[in-house]
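TA notes. Do not distribute before section.
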Amino acid sequence: MAITDWPEGERPREKLLQSGAESLSDAELLAIFLRVGVAGKSAVDLARDLLKEFGSLNGIFAASERQISAVHGMGSSKYVQLQAIFEMSRRALGEQLQQRDVFESPGQVREYLQLKLAHLPYEAFLVLFLDVQNRLVASEEMFTGTLMQTSVHPREVVKRALHHNAAAVIFAHNHPTGMAKQSQEDELLTQHLKDALELVGTRVLDHFVIAGNQTLSFKEKGLL
C-alpha cells in the first residue's frame, strides 16, 4: 500500500508536522528523506530494508557508495544526499558547541562525538579544544589505529593545544566492534596525556569512549 493511502495521522510527513520530528521512528524519518519507494514497496518499507541491511542509522551513514547503491531503489545520488545530511548534522552541532559552555549541553557533546566517531570502521582518537569558557574552538581527529601510549603522542596533543590556545580539552575515541568500556590502556593513556597538558596549563575535562549508540564518560565513572 502506498503511503498516500495510509490514514493521514500515520503518514510520516503529516505525523512530523503534527507531533514533531522526535515522534517519528528511524524508518519514518528515513522514509521522508527517500520520498518514494520502489515497485511493491513504500518509502517506509525501503527505509526498513536499509535499516535491516546496515543495522542502524549510523550503519547507513558509514556505508560506502557501493554498498548503498547495491540496495534496490538506491544509488549514487541518494548516497551523496545521505552524506550531505550527515555532514550538515555534524556541523550544526559543532556550531552550537562553539556558542555555549559544553557543560550546558552534555547531551549535545555526546551526540556530536557519536556523529564524528560512531560510524568509523577504524579506531580513531579525537580531541575537542575548548576556550576559557569551555566553548568549542576546534575538533581534530589526531590518531588512528590501536590507541596506546606508543601510538598517541602527548607532544602532538600539547602542540595542537598550544596552537589553539586551548584552556581545556575533551578526548574521545571509538570502539568500532566493541563495547563502550574503558580498558587499562585507555586509563593509562588518559593519565599520561593529562600529566603532559598540565605542564602547559591545559585541563582535561573528560574522555569519552564511543561504541555505536553507547558512550562512556571517564568523568562520570570517577576516572578523572
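Switch to the second chain here.
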Amino acid sequence: MKFCELLEKRKSIRTYTNAPIEKEKLDKIIEAAFSAPSAGNLQAYKILIVKNEKIKKALYYACLEQNSILSAQIILVFCTDKEQSAKKYGTRGENLYCLQDATIAAAYAQLEITNLGLGSVWIGAFEDKKVAEILKIESGKIPIAIIPIGYPVENEKARERIRKAKNEMVKEF
C-alpha cells in the first residue's frame, strides 16, 4: 500500500471482532514501533502488551469505560522512560524527549496496524495512576497512550474526520 493510501485508510476503529490476532502480525506491529526515530536513539519508552481478560477489564475502568478496551483482542500501552532519557538529556529529556519517543513509536504502531488490515484507536483519556497500578508499571515510567487492537467489525463506520483548514494550522516564515 502506498503511504498516502495508508494515511487515508487509517481511522479510529472502536469495535472489533473476536478473531485472534496472529503472532506474526503482532511482531510486525512491535517492529514498526521500534523503527520509529527517538531522541539520541535512546528509545526511551516501553511497550506493554495486554491480552489477559481480567487486566483488560480493569483497564476498561481506568480508561473511563471506553468499550474499545473490552472488545480488543490486544491492548498496547506505551509508557515513557523518563529516567533513561534524563540520563542523557536532563530535564528536557525527562519532560519532553521520552514523551516524544513513546508517542512516535505509538503512531508508527498504528500505521502498521492499519497496514495489516487491523483496526485501532488511540486512547489518551485514562487515569494514569490506575493504569500504572494495574500494570505494575515501575517508577519513572508513565503510560501516555493506550491502543486497543483487533479486526474491525465490518459494519462499523468510523467517525467523520473533520480537519481544520491548512491556513489555520500552518504558518510559513
